[in-house]
Amino acid sequence: MGLNVSLKLTTSDGSIIDQYNFHADSTDGQGIYAYTSLRPGTISTTISITWSTNKKNIPAPNPKTTTPAGTGSTPTQSPTTTAPKLPADCDEVEDKTSGIQIIYPDGINPISVYCDQTTEKAYTVIQIRGTLKNISFDLPYANYSDWFGESGIGKNFWMGLDLMNAMSNNGKSYNLQIDLCCGRQLRAKQIFHGFTYRWRINRLIGEEKAWYKTFGIPEQKRTTRNEMEDVEMAQPAEKDGEAERQAGGSGNDGSLWGDLTEMEESKRLLEDKNLELAEELDRSAAEVETMRKKVEEAEKLVEKLKKAMVKEKAVSGGLKGSIGHLEKKLAKAQGDRKAADGRLGEFERWIELFRKEEKEECGCRKGKAHYVEALGGECHDPKSLALSTLARNEKIASEDVNLMKCEEDFRKKLGKSERLEALRKFAGICPTWASKIMRNDWTEEELEWREAAESLKKEVMYRNQPQKAIIQEKYILVGQRMGLKSKAVFEVRTATISTWKQKFGWEKVEKAVVLVEWTKDDKQLKALVNLVEEIAKEVWELVVVPARMECGYDEVGGVTETWQKVRKTALNVEVVDPMTPVGPKKMPLILCDLKPGSLEKMMEYLACAIPGHSLVDRLRADVEDSEPKIKKHRAN
């Protein structure tokens, strides 16, 4: 029987700052216990407890508490009570549930740690790296001597090298287990047997430096030479043997190295070679990973090209279907024309038979303009002629034509084709109607004739547009300020760049190379882009080659990006990168010297920019033809 007393010092939120447990035996008549807490960051607190086994009140004595220098809590007892042994690790605490416990690794200073009681021997958690960002482990070596952080699952905590050294060298044997977790899921772990921290002294030239060193034997892991040295140091050895080894002695101190044989030395060399091979294997694995990424990029590019080919096939199939549909319409139109030609003689006979003069006048200076219709009557305005054309198309009997012209439902049938034919005929004989058609001068009552007039105007403009010069070359070069003489070279002036393409017929051109200046001028750049897009509609393949650099060297990339966007709207356009290294000096293409007026220099420049292109061979032929021929005289 006896008395169990537990003392706890907590914060306002319930967190334990310090804790101490002791037992008083009932055989003691009376006793006194004094406890002083000097934990850093707290107020110095002293608690005194007295007890007695009889029923009389015993005045509490005035205990004197002494606290040694340092940080921690120091209990002081009266001579009548023996203080219990302080727990040095989680295996010695009384509470065998997993959680936060108070231990005394050095026998003096308490510390709150997390105890893992799930195994036969409890684990003391010396380090936790959780998901919180409130504690940084990126600290100088000196900061790791003392503890920092807060122990607990998911938090950040470090027990301190001084306390680890005291705990691991208290005469007990410890195992170190390192858990690699993702959240609360264990990913991997490693166990080291015979784990200790030891204070080592390194004697360098002119100075001595001390530090802690970790010792332990890993499970299921290759033992390298350095690890064998750690195993040796982990073996218990007497202080005399340690001193003799540090002094360079060769006595029998139980050292592992003293008993190594020639076979063990060969084994260490083999282990070192295995490590080298493992490093080479890692490098090979990295190279394989790089090649795998390149293969994936190539596969993506192939897939993209396949999709583009499928799209091109779909477009080609649609064009073939449209061509077939137009061919059918053309055949039908040709048949209708033959039928119309067969009725032409009959219409001419009607024109001679039917004529009717109307009172309406067109306003021409030369008098009333009129058109003699097929049935012999005269039409003095397009509306009357359009109704006559409708009656002819509807196959109205000749004696009923004038009557049907006055019928309202019949007049509503008048369509664009009849109005277009009537306007076409009257525009040929009446200047007034021709002016109205070309100027689009219509009253509100005549708005229904505007669509037919616009169609006629487009027809006339298209029929009378300037004749185009047909380009006879398959491969051509287009550019500004070149000064070259060749049938395959076409020079564009800045003033006419917007209408230059419409001057030529492109039926025979297959490939074109456009030589452009690399400029940041938005107006000039936009005009060049529009020219390239227009030419791309006429040829099979078009290549944009940078010529002179009209921008800063740091602006070349931005201009190149603008040209690359053209490929999104024109699939047959390729853009040569101006930073492509060319020549023996591998200098950027945009910095090459391109002098105007020399066909040979231009051919050499294009051979660097677009090697193997058909235009290069075409220009080379012109260069060879332009070279002077040497005449040979035959001796008499």
UniProtKB/TrEMBL annotation:
| Keywords for this protein | Coiled coil
Starting at the broadest rank, the lineage of the source organism is: Eukaryota, Metazoa, Ecdysozoa, Nematoda, Chromadorea
User: Which stretches does UniProt call biased (Low complexity)?
Assistant: 63-85
Residues forming coiled coils:
260-315
In terms of domain of life, where is this protein from? Eukaryota
Q: Does the keyword Coiled coil apply?
A: yes
Record domain Fibrinogen C-terminal: where = 81-180
Record bears the keyword GTP-binding: no
- Sequence intervals crossing the membrane: none
> Which segments carry the region annotation Disordered?
54-88, 223-258
- Which SUPFAM superfamilies does the record cross-reference, listed alphabetically? Fibrinogen C-terminal domain-like
Protein name as annotated: Fibrinogen C-terminal domain-containing protein
